[in-house]
Amino acid sequence: MQTQEEIYRHLRDLRNELGVVSGRYGEISDGEIVMMMSPVPMHAYIARSIARQLDAQLPPPLGAFENADTDDAALGKLRIPDVLVVPEDAMKSVDPLDPHEISLAVEIVSRSNPNTDYVDKVADYPAMGIPHYLIIDPRDGTARHHWQIATQNGHPAYLNQVSYSFGDKIRIGDWTIDTADLPRYSDDQRPA
């Protein structure tokens, strides 16, 4: 019988092969490869805006980066945060990042699959040891910061959360993210 780590490694190899063929790379959680739709340009704009704000505040050796694999093979999880804060040297690897090096993971909620960010990653990120998780939701102009990992019901979970509305300044430790200029999906008035 295969261990969870062996199953994960097989899924990761399969995910990488699928990515070469399709040009898209999925995430892995709970024994499944989760292929995501390509994000809309506004999603990328918000991620870049947040990364720029963080970069202006981060002390060396930290940097804000977009879309990098992070995995915990023992847990069988591979995630790709939209924005992450990590030591710059960690980004020089060809292997997925060690999630324990990540200070903050940010996800921008897609219109098509919000449960991934609000349910699945709220469970996966504390299990992977990521101390701060920020959800930015352009669907309704809200944000939610999760932090302080502890064991609840036998599983790692975030003990604290606070909700924000676009226009608020989000404080995460010594860093501030200003949401005043973040667009909402409803702001896009182009024809579908």
From TrEMBL:
- Domain Putative restriction endonuclease as annotated: residue spans: 27-146
InterPro entries (alphabetical): Nuclease_put_TT1808 (IPR012296), Restrct_endonuc-II-like (IPR011335), Uma2 (IPR008538)
Molecular function GO terms recorded: endonuclease activity
State if Hydrolase is listed as a keyword: yes
Which key words are in the record? Endonuclease, Hydrolase, Nuclease
Q: Does the keyword Hydrolase apply?
A: yes
Question: PANTHER family this protein is in?
Answer: SLL1072 PROTEIN, SLR1083 PROTEIN
- Can you name this protein? Uma2 family endonuclease
Q: What organism is recorded for this protein? A: Streptacidiphilus cavernicola
